[in-house]
């Protein structure tokens, strides 16, 4: 599992361990991943950790030998992080993904689960956005995921590597950091203002457990050339989110409205009918139902509200 010490992947590791699978290889360079996300699996003989980079083809080949499935989640997964360091975003998300697919083709891996993003669509023409919507990424992160998807299709069509492409909306849950919900919870907890860039955004948030379940189900289904949106199918106005977080605390925090940032998509809601039909997953009534659970996990490490999101 690439990026196995990261936010999403570490939850997937937890689930795979519970499901009593065979050996799990966690492969992570710890650029965004954190050891504390997987430390509770130390001593488990079925969990192996390799600190290495997906741009290192030799180490990646070593990790993949004998594997049945590769869950590929290693990436520069932060929009503004990719804007600030497009070189790392490109080499990790594009070259790294190429390496993963090449290794899969040469080691007989049965399937690759590719973690893509709603950022591939860019600013949508209409809402909700289904999987047939034209691709038009707005930032380096989205562009890198488009490239990754295209290489997935090439390796599927030319080299027989079965790939499932899942386009995730804005995932939230414990262990996340440097993204809007955990940053704002951190700010409210500390009595600091919640910085809002623009204020017109509408965002589709999806709870971490839904994403993990989607990835597990995708290993058992041949999606062919289909990609699948994984989201709640519901739009949350960013100011409503800010006010909902403020209402969770007795705090002096206020909303600090700042100019919009050009690389960010303003409005996105996923059409999740294919997720429901193909993967059998039903979205929750309330996309933000997990907020109270996050309050039980107040140590968000590197979530610094002064940095914005």
Q: How would you characterize the overall build of this protein?
A:
The chain is of the alpha/beta class and 309 residues long. The protein folds into 2 domains: 7-171 and 206-230, Rossmann fold (3-Layer(aba) Sandwich), CATH 3.40.50.720; 174-203 and 233-270 and 285-307, UDP-galactose 4-epimerase, domain 1. It is 36% helix and 16% strand. The protein contains 10 helices and 12 strands. A 4-stranded parallel beta sheet has the order 3-4-5-10. Strands 1-2 form a two-stranded parallel ribbon. The protein has a two-stranded parallel ribbon with strand order 6-9. The radius of gyration is 19 Å and the shape is globular. 46% of the residues are buried.
Chain-wise SSE layout:
Blueprint: H1 7-18, E1 24-28, E2 47-51, H2 57-64, E3 69-72, H3 79-84, H4 86-107, E4 111-117, H5 140-159, E5 162-168, E6 170-172, H6 180-190, E7 194-197, E8 202-203, E9 205-207, H7 208-218, E10 227-230, E11 236-237, H8 238-247, E12 255-258, H9 273-279, H10 291-294
Parallel strand pairs: 1-2, 3-4, 4-5, 5-10, 6-9, 7-12
Antiparallel strand pairs: 8-11
Mean pLDDT: 93
CATH H-tier superfamily of the largest domain: NAD(P)-binding Rossmann-like Domain
- What share of the residues lie within helices? 25-40%
Order of strands, main sheet, comes to: 3-4-5-10
Classify the beta-strand content into a percent band.
15-25%
Sheet having the most strands: 4 strands, parallel
Q: Nearest-angstrom radius of gyration? A: 19 Å
CATH class group of the largest domain: Alpha Beta
Shape: globular
| Uncertain stretches | none
Tell me the structural class.
Answer: alpha/beta
CATH architecture annotation name of the largest domain: 3-Layer(aba) Sandwich
Secondary-structure element order, N to C: HEEHEHHEHEEHEEEHEEHEHH
């Amino acid at each position: 599992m690439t990026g196995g010490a990261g936010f999403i992947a570490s939850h997937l590791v937890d689930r795979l361990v519970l499901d009593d699978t065979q050996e799990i290889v966690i492969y992570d360079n710890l650029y965004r991943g954190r050891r504390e996300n997987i430390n509770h699996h130390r001593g488990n003989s079925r969990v192996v950790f390799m600190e290495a980079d997906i741009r290192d083809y030799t180490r990646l080949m070593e990790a993949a030998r004998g594997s049945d499935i590769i869950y590929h989640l290693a990436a520069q997964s932060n929009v503004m992080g990719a804007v600030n360091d497009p070189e790392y975003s490109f080499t990790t998300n594009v070259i790294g993904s190429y390496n993963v697919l090449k290794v899969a083709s040469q080691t007989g891996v049965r399937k690759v689960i590719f973690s893509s993003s709603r950022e591939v669509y860019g600013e949508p023409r209409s809402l909700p956005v289904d999987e047939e919507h034209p691709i038009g990424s707005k930032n380096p992160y989205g562009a890198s995921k488009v490239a990754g998807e295209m290489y997935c299709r090439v390796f599927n069509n030319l080299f027989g590597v079965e790939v499932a492409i899942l386009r995730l909306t804005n995932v939230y849950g414990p262990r996340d950091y440097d993204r809007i919900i955990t940053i704002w919870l951190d700010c409210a907890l500390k009595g600091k203002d919640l910085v809002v860039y623009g204020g017109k955004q509408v965002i589709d948030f999806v709870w971490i457990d839904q994403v993990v379940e989607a990835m597990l189900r995708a290993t058992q289904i041949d999606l062919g050339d289909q990609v699948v949106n994984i989201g709640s199918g519901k739009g949350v106005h960013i100011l409503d989110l800010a006010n909902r977080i403020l209402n969770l605390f007795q705090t002096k925090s206020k909303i600090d409205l700042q100019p919009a940032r050009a690389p960010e998509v303003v409005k996105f809601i996923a059409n999740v009918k294919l997720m429901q039909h193909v993967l059998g997953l039903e979205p929750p009534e309330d996309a933000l139902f997990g907020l109270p659970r996050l309050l039980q996990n107040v140590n968000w490490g590197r979530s610094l509200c002064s940095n914005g999101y």
